[in-house]
Amino acid sequence: MMSDTSAQTHWPQEQCFRSFKHCLPVCRESVYGEFFDAFREDIKVKRESAAIKNLKTIFDATFELASKGGFDAMSLRDLSQTTGISMGGLYNYIRSKDKLAQMVNDFLSQRLAPLAYSLNLESGSPRQRLATRLRIYIYMGSLFRPWYRFVYMESKSMARQQRDQAKQFDLVDTAKLKELIEEGVHAGEMQCNNTELTASALLALIQDWYLKSWKYKQNDTSTDDYANFLVSLTDKLLANNDQHTGDQSGYNAHSGKNNL
């Protein structure tokens, strides 16, 4: 179940939050329909409209309770009281807290992320493809902040399988960034002495966007502001000064070698 994509006309030529949202085949409003489709076999309620409504209620409450007191302290009885859905009703959607956490992890890594990554540039220079991937991470973090925040912040209180899965999600993203940086270095577009640490540092900046949204909201920083900043910062960090002698990439190449 996906949102209407008839408005997708400009991405990736026009790389902004608006064009990304138009092109992405799922949105905040349709995400629980997508979730129901992904876990149709596990969910006992088969009437789609009722299931989607209750899934939104259940997971909105889960994210809220976890952000206030931590997922470890949250019980299914707390969830029942917050949502107004009986314990028996909850079991029609989730069998246990561990299953709930697993569903969030699986949905994010196996459903949402692949939909977003399908919008990556298939051609273009490594620098262009890296910039596009960075924007996708920031835009997804804005659209589905509670999901990403839950996986990052609550993995420590999950069962071992879910903890390992969350770590793997992080490692995969780091590896994808590292691969693009290494391609850029090989092509002579970028300069970097430690691609692993650089990729990890970029991922930390991405995670800061959805983990500390209060700070950026207070500073009136928009999604596009942060995405543009991150792309510009990355350009400067990885600039090959032998190749870029002027403002050829939307920034002035800094002097000296990249020490990362």
UniProtKB/TrEMBL annotation:
It comes from Pseudoteredinibacter isoporae. Residues 52-112 form the HTH tetR-type domain. Signal peptide: none annotated. Residues 75-94 bind DNA. Gene3D superfamilies: Homeodomain-like (1.10.10.60), Tetracycline Repressor, domain 2 (1.10.357.10). GO terms for molecular function: DNA-binding transcription factor activity; transcription cis-regulatory region binding. The keyword Secreted does not apply. The lineage of its organism: Bacteria, Pseudomonadati, Pseudomonadota, Gammaproteobacteria, Cellvibrionales. It comes from the Bacteria. It holds the Pfam family TetR_N. Keywords: DNA-binding, Transcription, Transcription regulation. This is AcrR family transcriptional regulator.
